[in-house]
Write a structure and sequence with these properties.
The protein is α+β, with helices and mostly antiparallel strands and 108 residues long. It is built from three helices and four strands; from the N terminus they run E-H-E-E-E-H-H. The protein binds FE3-S4 cluster.
Length: 108
């Protein structure tokens, strides 16, 4: 499965969700997650993300490996919150795109 990682937090550009052929994206307040059960590893979303937040699970950078479990857990929690189109990014997304260590800001 593909994994959404830290750069997405407080950005949520949502370009990724519109191209997913199986509607695997789920939406939280300031992050999207991919349901690993739905994901068919098609790779379409990766190049859509302007902050390069999405990786195949075997290529997630080491510092973000905990996002693999996080995507799975949040996909279950946000099971009913399917997103399959692009909406406006969060306010100040472009500023947040530059920032690191955002995990504490993730809202569930
Ligand atoms: Fe997040 Fe990138 Fe999608 S910022 S919502 S993973 S386009």
């Amino acid at each position: 499965a593909y994994i959404v990682t830290e750069p997405c937090i407080n950005c949520k550009y949502t370009n990724c969700a519109a191209v997913c052929p199986v509607d695997a994206f789920r939406e939280g307040p300031n992050f999207l997650t991919i349901d690993p059960i739905e994901c068919i590893d098609c790779d379409a979303c990766v190049s859509e993300c302007p902050v390069e937040a999405i990786f195949p699970d075997d290529e997630v950078p080491e510092e973000w490996e905990h996002y693999i479990e996080l995507n799975e857990r949040l996909a279950e929690k946000w099971e009913d919150r399917v997103i399959n189109e692009t909406f406006d990014a969060l306010p100040d997304a472009d500023e947040w795109a530059e920032k690191t260590d955002k995990l504490d800001l993730l809202q569930e």
